[in-house]
Amino acid sequence: MPFRALLLASVGLALLAAPASAQLLTVDHPGQYTQEDIGRGGLFYNANCVQCHGRDGDQISGIDLRRGLFRRSQSDEDLAQTITRGTPGGMPAFKLDPAELTAIVAFIRAGFDTSASVKVGDTAKGRAIFQGKGECMMCHRVAGKGPRSAPDLSDIGIARAPAVLERAVREPTSALFPINRPVRIVMRDGKTIRGRRLNEDTHTVQIIDEKERLVSVVKKDVRSMDVAKESAMPAYAGKLTDSEIADVVAYLMTLRRQ
Question: CA geometry: angle at 20 spanning 87 and 256, to 5°?
């Protein structure tokens, strides 16, 4: 009997008949993806998926696996079902053991970053923390609600991989995009403007100031512009537990306005 057949037989006929989501939840660490999981998933992806999805996961129209953009899937269980059942559009079904299934989902959730480790928690709990204990909506805007003093997070689930989201919550400065760094501008007439950059070109800088007003500054009128190296967002490492951070990451992953 071929090795694969022996391997599948060893996990039992009941497991073979179980839905993909049930298989995924039989792993020892549901929702926790280690570097080992992710690395193993990368090997599987390169051997079985790269010909159709491409090296960066964006070779099929409407799908970008590295950025977490799917046609149907949202949760880890959705991904597992798609992988094990295939799709009407032509993707074949893959018969995987639980460890293999966990690995390929981990690789996708890590944004193809094999140096990362990702823990994804409970979406509903994460939303409650985001809106409550974390006080995130005091600065961030989601789906048209909330202030503009910090970046709009309405599509952050597409823009950033889960591993990056986790790092941004724990230590915001380590994941800060240059364009989002706080700035302090002193004009030639002595006026000081503080805020967040939205855009910058050769001649102008567009800023959301401290009163949430859009300000366009002509560079020739600027005396000095200081760009902060640290994020204005507080670090949540130590303020939230690991489980709470994982829950917030799970919620952020659902923010996918297009």
Answer: 65
Q: Are residues 114 and 195 in the same domain?
A: no
Q: Are 214 and 149 in contact (CB under 8 A)?
A: no
Range from 40-49, 70-79, 130-139, 152-161 carrying the lowest mean pLDDT: 70-79
Do both 102 and 38 map to the same domain? yes
How far apart (Å, rounded) are the C-alpha atoms in residues 212 and 204? 18
Q: Which residues pair with 183 in a beta bridge?
A: 195, 227
- In the chain, % of residues over pLDDT 90: 45
User: Using CA atoms, how far apart are residues 78 and 255, in angstroms rounded to an integer?
Assistant: 16
SS3 210: coil
**Can you give the pLDDT at residue 27?**
42
Stretch 32-60: mean pLDDT, rounded? 89
Let me know whether 9 and 35 are in one domain: yes
Q: Under DSSP, is residue 51 helix (H, G, I), strand (E, B) or coil? A: helix
For 216-248, letters b (16+ CB in 10 Å) and e give ebeeeeeeebeeeeebbbebbeeebeeebbbbb
Residue 258 belongs to a domain: no
Measured between alpha carbons, how far is residue 250 from residues 61, 124, 133 in Å?
Answer: 25, 9, 16
In angstroms, the CA 169 to CA 171 distance is 6
Q: Are residues 8 and 115 in the same domain?
A: yes
